[in-house]
Amino acid sequence: MTRHLVKKGLILLFSLFTVATLTFFLMHAIPGDPFTQDKAVPEEIMQAMRRHYGLDQPLFIQYLKYLKGLVTWDLGPSFKYEGRTVTEIISEGFPVSLALGLEALLIAVSLGIAAGTISSLKSGRWQDHLTMLVAVLGISVPSFILATFLQYIFAMKLDILPVARWGTFAQSILPALSLAALPMAFITRLTRSNMVEVIQTDYILTARSKGLSTFQIVCRHMLRNALLPVVTFLGPLTAAILTGSFVVEKIFGIPGLGQWFVMSVTNRDYTVIMGTTVFYSALLMFSVFIVDILYCLIDPRIRIGHKSEAT
Amino acid sequence: MFTWINQNQIKLLTTLKYLLSLLLVFLMGCQSSAPKGERSKQELRLNIASEPPTLDPRKASDTISVAILTLCFEGLMRSEKEFAMAKEVQVSPDLRTYTFTLRDAFWADGQPVTAADFEETWKTILDPSFPSPYASDLYVIKNGKGYKEKKLTRDMVGVKAIDAKTLQVELEHPVPFFLSLVSTHCFFPAPAHMKQPFGDHFVSNGPFKLTSWRHSNDLTLVKNSQYWDISRVILEKIYFGIIQDETTGLHMFENCEIDWAGTPFSSLPLDAMPMLVKNPLYQSFEMPGVYYYIFNIEKPPFDNVNMRKAFALAINRKEIIANILQGKQTPATGSVPPMMWKGDPTPDYFKDADIPEARRLFALALKEMGKTVKDLPPISLSYNTNEGHHKIAQAIQEQWLKALGVRVSLENKEWKVFLDDLTRHQFQIARMGGLATFNDPTTFLDTYKYPQDTHNFSTWRNARLTEILNQSDLISDEKERFKLLKEAEAIVISEMPILPLYYYKGNFLKKPYVKGITYSELGDVEFKTAYIEQP
Questions:
Q1: Which of these, A209, A260, B35, B397, has the minimum number of CB atoms within 10 Å of its CB?
Q2: Of A40, A240, A251, the CB nearest to B455
Q3: Do B487 and B257 touch, CB atoms closer than 8 A?
């Protein structure tokens, strides 16, 4: 088990290094630089700006400097946003995305599993059809449509929540719901389909014949097995949802990290591109890593499988 | 993971979203005549479309930063005729030396504003190691360019604080609009008494001062009690929420969460315009800007002037404004917006949608080139990715096909890729837009005078034009000067390196209780004397 984890950890570090390197060179390969603009900028002024930000040095030197910065977590200043460092941008934006993401994740996972379970237990009946209809809607209606709709109902029509902005709990409800809808629908469907399979297995029949209550069967026997694919989905989902969504952040004016991914590329803000990409990759890989560990804990077969592999 | 909808679906859904928002605007409409929410009596609330990249006037270059800086800072002049930090100015007979006498004014921290503040700031901007994108605006100062190019030293730059209240500026050549120029943000002072101006402590000298800036979230300005003209400032506080989405901004306005939506801090959603122009709260104003297409005159077929003219005349601008922009813009038939001529605009240089003439010129051009329509190389029109640009391009594509029988392909590109292609002259026709940075027609005409310094993407030059522009620098009488400059504009249009489409209009929605706004000579909305009318 430990050996397995160490191996995974090393692969993770190598992947991260690859991502950082590829992003660095790809980013410099695309046309335009941070100072390209439509306004006339004489060459000597361009040079002064490039010199100021170290862009006049050979690419390889910039790369080495960048790697050094990465190890010491000093990612340099933003080229576009004067006086702000990438570390600052991440440390200010991430907590916001984290808070919003956790709220959305909580809604998505709890409601998704609950709805999926109910739907599977009432398979073929109106509860099932209704849940699946809502789930299909959740998957096919993109977050920005839902966001506008929620703004209309709750802010403009009922006037119980603010249209946008960030800072209070009330302001976080609508964006969290918009963000949660898609994964919630997905989790609902995933839970349902797995539960329907599990229901038909022999051990559930055994459990039933032992006279266990439905609640006990669902919690102890069914969910534990049916949730494995959901856990797999949770890894990348957590990373995606915690680092923020560009669209939802834009619509609700939320100062999260999601907008920086998109804006930094548009601005060719090199340091921010690198910082956010590496941060996102690290988070993604770490989430997958955690999911691996969770797998071992939830499903003993995997643990055993690796043991036999090692011997 | 979440990308299982394709581009067409996205387009459809975007349209749906706008239709939905239109419906909302139609259904709702805030009936309240008083500001909503808990706030002080003289507080104005509005949205800005993005985080200001910087609030250091020496480095700012984007419209959002400049709009906020204009509230916080004041240069020697507020406009060509309105004194600000200066109370009087003497101009030497050769128009090359300006001596400003400063009034008793103070920074927000109580320190006096001195001539040294200006000298220090301007020299810093021109410093070769200082990253300032607009430094070239200060090249009119004697030896400014030489210093930036490291050919001359700092002491040789023609700006000097004679004493605390006297600033002497020597110019490279006469600049008849210099007083207007020093009112722009590039000439705002920075507090020289602070080691790191605009670092942890933000000190300004204008009507308002910045008290809080929660990055990507909001900014708060409050009245600057040290401001010399404080008696005219009534607003106690201006709150800016940073909201990128135009539709959200409109919802907030409708829901009375903000008092203002649109120019100069954000924009109104294009799709909502037909409904908004009918709204009694809607207002529009003239802006010193022009939207145009550039021809690449180095490549056929646009190396032929008649071909360029044919394409320009074949466009129906009024139709585009009525059906796509829908925001009271005016068709452009010149290269300089009419308001730049200060009440004496030029007549139309050509007729909009003059199809017979366009066809005649087109036939003539083909004859000169010895080609038929079929022999023409494939023509493409490029623009940066944007819904508005795309719709305009589509309409024009259709108009050209109808009028000239030429099928032009459309290429939309990401902004920086687009600019890169333009710089390398990899285009045939490309979209561009320009806003005046100072109040003089040369802000538009000089593009063709310094092709090496500016982004004259068409690379077009004309000896007579350069001669006229140089001549005009020596004339101080505005009427006489404008006569020459109009001649210069006529040359540009007769050669048509650019194809003017329309002159910009600012559009906004304003709550009826917001009063006292004014417009600067450059058409910017000024909030210095704005106030909230109490019920």
A1: A209
A2: A40
A3: no
- Looking at the predicted structure, is the pLDDT value of residue B16 above 90? no
Q: Is A151 on the interface with B (CB under 8 A)?
A: yes
CA distances A105 to A144, A187, B527, Å, are 18, 11, 43
pLDDT in the model for residue B148: 92
Q: Cβ(B160)–Cβ(B167) under 8 Å?
A: yes
- Do the chains contact at B432 and A38, CB–CB below 8 Å? yes
**Can you tell me the mean pLDDT for A120-124?**
88
Give me chain A's average pLDDT, please: 86
- Say if the ipTM goes beyond 0.85: no
| Banded model confidence at residue B406, pLDDT cuts 50, 70, 90 | very high
Residue B49 in tokens:
């479309």
What is the pLDDT at residue B395?
96
pLDDT tens, residue by residue, B148-175: 999 999 999 999 999 999 999 999 988 9
For range B185-214, the mean pLDDT: 89
Residue contact A165–B148, C-beta within 8 A:
no
pLDDT tens-digit profile of A80-108? 888 889 999 999 999 999 999 999 999 99
Q: What is the dihedral of CA B294, B300, B304, B306, to 10 degrees?
A: -70
Of A38, A163, A182, Cβ closest to residue B255: A163
Query: Could you tell me which of B74, B51, B77, B62 has the C-alpha nearest to residue B190?
Result: B74
Closest chain B residue to the Cα of A255, Cα to Cα: B216
CB-CB: which of A83, A167, A253 is closest to B243?
A253
Write down the mean pLDDT value for chain B. 89
Which tokens belong to B508? 């906004």
Size of the A and B interface in Cβ pairs below 8 Å: 161
Please, what is the Cα angle at B51 between B50 and B55, to 5 degrees? 130
Q: Which residues touch A213 (CB under 8 Å, ≥6 apart)?
A: none
CB B219 within 8 A of CB B103: no
Average pLDDT over residues B218-245: 95
**Within an 8 Å CB–CB cutoff, is residue A42 touching chain B?**
yes
Residue B130, C-beta contacts closer than 8 angstroms, at least 6 positions apart: A48, A52, B58, B124
**Closest CA–CA distance from residue B328 to any residue of chain A (Å):** 25
pLDDT value of residue B119 = 97
Distance CA A169, CA A102 (A): 13
Which residues does A228 contact at the CB level (< 8 Å), separation at least 6? A194, A295, A298, A299
- Confidence (pLDDT) at A210: 87
Task: Find chain A residues with C-beta within 8 A of B55's C-beta.
Answer: 82
Query: If you count DSSP H runs as helices and E runs as strands, how many of each does chain A have, helices first?
Result: 15, 0
The pTM assigned to this predicted structure is 0.86
**Partner B, chain A 5-34, Cβ-Cβ below 8 Å:** 30-33
Q: How far apart are CA A8 and CA A14, in angstroms?
A: 10
Contact A142 B149 (CB under 8 A): no
Contact B2 A162 (CB under 8 A): no
Q: In chain A, what residues touch B416 (CB-CB under 8 Å)? A: 30-33, 36, 266, 268
pLDDT at A24 over 70: yes
Is the confidence at residue A299, as pLDDT, over 60?
A: yes
Which DSSP string corresponds to B30-41?
---SS--SS--T
With residues binned 3-state (H G I as helix, E B as strand, rest as coil), the percentages for chain B, rounded to 5, are 35, 20, 45
Instruction: Please name the member of A44, A82, A250 whose beta carbon is closest to the beta carbon of B53.
Output: A82
| Closest alpha carbon within chain B to A34 | B416
Task: Please give the pLDDT value at position B29.
Answer: 47
Is the preceding omega at residue A31 within 30 degrees of 0, hence cis? no
